Input
Amino acid sequence: MERIPILKMGGFLLVTIQVDMHDRLAMQLQDDLTEMISRTGARGVLIDISSLELVDSFIGRVIANIASMSRILDAETVVVGMRPAVAITLVELGLSLAGVRTALNVDKGMRLLRTAVGCEPEEPADGRDEA
Amino acid sequence: MASNDDIKMLAGFVQRLRTELLRTWQVELIEQVGRRQLMSEAELRDQSGEFLRQFAQALGQAEGTGITGAEWAPLRELLAELSASRALQGFSPAETARFVLSFKRPLLEALRREITDARQLTEVIWTATELLDNLALHTTEVYQKSREEVIVRQQEEMLELSTPVVKLWDGILALPLIGTLDSNRTQVVMESLLQRIVDTNSEVAIIDITGVPTVDTLVAQHLMKTVAAARLMGVECIISGIRPQIAQTIVHLGVALGDIVTKATLADAFRLALSRIGTSIQNSRSHAR
Output
């Protein structure tokens, strides 16, 4: 079954959505990501949607939900690389993803995550893995 | 309704008396179109000659007094060209229509001289009048249409001209809005801002509304949509240039700007934007002291 890969980078998790999101894939990602956060104890999640060209209200909601869930699991979430057309669509749909951090590209998103977490990302994750 | 006989008769007359009609008409035209500085006499002569030639030709094949048939197509085209060029030259619609209408007098006078039977004269005159009126209306219609095209083009140009996105600093964009914001413009503004954000890799955008005359709930909503869309792309927006009256209006209308940062002047917003990207400008003179 098709899955969206979740990469672990130090204390952060990196999700790059490079296919068209359909509903089941989005739900699968939600399951996988929450599972992965609790397993690795990641302090930050970066979701790159720069390849996402189509977004509907459901996918928009799932992205918002994933961000909220990650925060509850004590991981800061940054959504990066949203295209102008997607941003306009989401605003028109009334989904402004309040409370979700956003950044223009992966580079800026990473910097934002580091400052948000406030410490070296490697430490907590490594400590948790050894424990 | 004019019978085909009347048209045939009229066609015969016009064909026969063409040179005479043209001469009297041209005298009339040059007298009437008193704005010779807009148009040379030679040009008028050319146009009237061509009109009469096409008119006679179309009449020869015409059935009925409508001018929508294929036989009138060349004449319609000629008139369309003529009124479009006159619209550009600065003629009024009445002056444009008068070109065709001024042909009535020479034609009717000639007909009165030629036809002795009163009943027949009335019939033929009626046919001629109807035809010429239709042609004159056609010129007015085309005139209107070409004017409208000019207006539409200018509107489009204004839409593009009025939404510049300016790069103020590395990572800082400014969007000086001038004029009223409607849904159409907001869409263009939003799209060009977001595209420039991607192109320039910016982090902060300043929307300056000094040039926006009024802010009502709709404008405020448009602004907030733009800010929300920019935020989704990871860019912080600062709204600047809020005049005292506009601040009052916003509060009186009960518009909640939420957590959007607002500043009174573009300079204040720029200073804040610089600090957001971790830069500051120092006064070199006070620094040297």
